[in-house]
């Protein structure tokens, strides 16, 4: 069982990430609750995709800014800034994945964690 936690406001971080993604038009925003899976190294994955590398980068920037400003949390680690096809932002209890649409389809991350509870954000038109 995982015991390492960075903050006590994990649900606030998740909500802030989802809203930040939505505000920059992230597509198919999904939160995976991994707490009951027994093998996850984090509590939540929040996943979305974008149509362009520019938008992937903009979504990641918005997530970083909003989580810092609203939750007072800085990431433990960031990966993928060089190629912007898959940017991973690790907040320890919440790991954010911002994909280029083709990369999301290729890696099918949600399918790897099919036993996790899935919360889908309805898209605003």
Question: What are the salient characteristics of this protein?
Answer:
single chain, 125 residues, alpha+beta, Beta Polymerase, domain 2, six-stranded mixed sheet, 35% helix, globular
Notes on the protein architecture:
The protein is an alpha+beta fold and 125 residues long. It has one domain: Beta Polymerase, domain 2 (2-Layer Sandwich), CATH 3.30.460.10. α1 runs antiparallel to α2. The longest helix is centred in the middle third of the chain and has 19 residues. It is globular, with a radius of gyration of 13 Å. The chain starts with 9 loop residues before the first helix and ends in a 5-residue tail after the last strand.
pLDDT below 50 for ≥5 consecutive residues: which ranges? none
Q: Over the alpha carbons, how many angstroms does the gyration radius reach?
A: 13 Å
What is the average per-residue confidence, as pLDDT, rounded to a whole number? 91
CATH architectural label: 2-Layer Sandwich
Describe the global form: globular
CATH class identity: Alpha Beta
Widest sheet: strand ordering: 3-4-5-2-1-6
SS strand fraction: 25-35%
Biggest pleated sheet: 6 strands, mixed
Q: Helical percent range?
A: 25-40%
CATH fold label? Beta Polymerase, domain 2
Task: State the secondary-structure class.
Answer: alpha+beta
> What is the number of domains?
1
Q: What is the β-strand count? A: 6
Order of helices and strands, N to C?
A: HEEHEEEHHE
Helical run tally: 4
CATH superfamily, please? Beta Polymerase, domain 2
